[in-house]
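Checked the freezer inventory, then went back to the computational side. Two predictions to log before the end of the day. The first one is the construct we discussed on Monday; recording sequence and tokens without edits.
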Amino acid sequence: MNLESLLLMRQEIGLITIIVLLIIFEIFSNKKQKATIIPFALILLAINTILGFLPLATGDLFGGMFRTNDLLYFFKTTLSLGVLILLLQSADWLKEKVVSENKASEFIILILSSLLGAYFMISAGDFLMFYIGLELTTLPVAALVAYETLKRKSAEGAVKYILSSALASGTALFGISLLYATTGTIYFDAMSELLTSSNLAILGFVFFFSGLAFKISLVPFHFWTADVYEGAPINVASYLSVISKGAAVVVLMILLFTVFKPLMPAWNKIIYIVTIATMFTGNLFALRQQNMKRFLAYSSIAQAGFILLGLLSVDQLGVATVIYFVAIYIFSNLGAFGVVQAISSATNKENMDDYEGLYRTNPKLSLVMMLALFSLAGIPPLAGFFGKFFLYAAAASKGYYVMVFIAVVNATVSLYYYLLVVRAMFLRKGENPIPYFKSGNYMRLGLLIAVIGILVIGLYSPIYEYIYSISNVFLN
């Protein structure tokens, strides 16, 4: 292996280097230096993210186990930017509440380790690399969910997550073994040529899909989501909702459009049913929530249902639409979770009723939350509108007009419950409104980047055009 081949893993090597440097820093730093790991980690991750935008050669390594191309480079860089925003939003919380417990470096290392697993999962060329990436991205999050060790809900959420994820991983692995039994290979390219619509192959796909659907919180594999989000620290819930889910969605899309393309008549029906169930379940349960973390948990379930619309179109439009919408979703959800994080850190208030009168005391935070929620709802001219429009277009291009109608109905329902939060902030006068407070510089920078993403991705069409131009790499 020469240097040119090794550079195909530039993003992974960069992230591994950052993790190793943080471990070394943690070992050799004294108590007074512990807080400096936060800006140190942010600078290193920012450099790695910027380098991700530089062009690289495409190809594969390790006999096809690891592969990369322009689309995967773009998406991994988008995930890095999302984690950078998340760490910016977490910096003040880490400094005020975690550094004193000597756990700040562990938090950052676990987040970056999970991101590294997502990288390997996205670039996998066979099911062995995929499974290693899946486990690496899942196990650190189980520790992160239980990070607030003094809270019973945090420990309860971690137990639910680790037990559910273990069952999901085992289910996916059993599905992979059945697929191997039918084809005699675990390599994606070879399996796509050998796979047939036999009963054993379809059964293997169902088990595999069930395991991966857990990470995306698709119905009926979503029951863990609200409890884990509520128990976890807000930034960990944000990571689960945005980065972990986004990576799993893109991997599912790649596998459906390549490896499982011979099984399309079977999985197409499964996706159709799961899409409807996920949209309705997420939206109807979100209507009943008062806790903002549970509210955003069910919102993210509903958004996962919308993303599945793009999977019904097995063509370049479908690939581009899914990648584009996930990028928009990352910025929109990080904006909403960031505001919840800022308010919770300052006041320990996390219920929707607590947001009454927020615009009068904290107008900037209210505007950021409104933009994020309107983007999630699909209100023009924000990025979420264009993302959902292209999802509808992708489904309609294959004749799924009834599905598009159902999606529009669900979008209307989602607009209603997003407006409940906006009404509380702008129209209600709370008896005990959240007092004015000033967020830290890191938090404000994180929210600013999220808002810029919400506005720019929607209004700047060359971004979608670029994604579309590189979206044919997985299509024959």
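The second is the one RB wanted added to the comparison set:
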Amino acid sequence: MTATADPAVPSDGDDYQGEEMTLFEHLAELRSRLIKATLGFGFFFVIGFIFNDIVTEILTDPYCQLPEEVRGGIGTDSSGECQLIFINVLGGFVVRLKGALIVAITFGAPIMFYQLWAFIVPGLKAKEKKYAAPFVILTQVLFLAGAAFSLFIIPRGLEFLLQFAGDDFVPVLDAEAYITFLIRTMLAFGISFEYPLVIAILVLMDIVSHDLLKKYRRHAFFSAFVAAAIITPSQDPFTMCVMALPLAGFYEICIVFAKVIERGRGRRDVAAA
């Protein structure tokens, strides 16, 4: 963290400059960041709660896209409109809360990521700070992309799962359990899409090299499918494959990224010599 400049500290573009903050100042800064992140999360939670009808329509759409025969005709009212049920007194209220929670997670998580980066960045060296802004943006974009992507594959996963028991069973989907399934799936995809940033940071820190990434490519692909099998809430093959394939693609992008970074380092070394 940077406070006031200290003239006694030698000026070096790659070194940290300024007085270090005390432990209590760090804790105060962390508390401030946590409060801001919580307020942002709370703001979108309230928005999601107020506009519950719109949120509910969006969230039930993956289920309502399924053919009526898959839904067993149960999730349909007399006018043909798709519906979900709840089976306890507080079910409707809990569904509304969980719908608001999805909005808060989707739009509040980027604020949390930003506050985390804002807390870390002042303590970085000048050379490291130039990477901070792109990583802040990419962290938010990738999480939102993962959460949005999950909504496109959920209908196929639901269709597989609801038909798995066979024709002797009719699915009656509880709204509360369904929303919980959506939250877990969106979180799983949102967090998994941050995977390339971890590798990119290791490359920039010179911990992982282009050759190392190429050497362990097959291991990485296998790990992507294992991770997808563990992370995916539904555990169905379709959803696992859909999650694993982007992770494998991200790994390939990271290999190219490592090659570009290493070439840049090589040119700088030649110029310095």
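For RB: The two ends are 34 Å apart (CA to CA). Residues 237-272 form the longest helix (36 residues). Let me know if you want it refolded.
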